[in-house]
Amino acid sequence: MRPITFRESGRYTKATTGREGSGEMRVRDVGVEAGHLIRLAGELHDLGVDSVVRLPPHHEPAMEIPLYDPGSRLRVTAVRRGRTWMFIWGRSRRRRVPTSTPEAAQRVVAAAQAARAAHEARLAATAETVRVARAAEVLSDRDDVSGAPGVRVLWRAR
């Protein structure tokens, strides 16, 4: 079910359902979420990290940090858990930090750097696999001069 959007006392708010089965509605203030994200974007700018704050009309505001490809990015949202506003960039408890924490920007930067490092490690492993595959070559019986009679060598590393 799509959330109901309405105006209340001059501030843009969004009504969403509460916990499943509770029947309660909670009102989410999109302006506060966007404010936290814009503040974080400013702190990231001071640290020299590129970021974009997106305010789509029918979805939650989010900040995106470009990673390694044009299509890959770290997506950070601001959500309220109880009475505490938090920045969240994943599903784990280790991937969230309260917005009031002074080192929140450094934690988000560390997460982006870890994602970049993991991608570079995957690329290096793939490049090594390709290098090994290219180094291996199939030898025919007539090319195999080092094999003993009756032994067939299927590949040789260069």
Automatic annotation (TrEMBL):
Residues 1-24 are annotated as: Disordered. It comes from the Bacteria. This is Uncharacterized protein. It comes from Sphaerimonospora thailandensis. The lineage of its organism: Bacteria, Bacillati, Actinomycetota, Actinomycetes, Streptosporangiales.
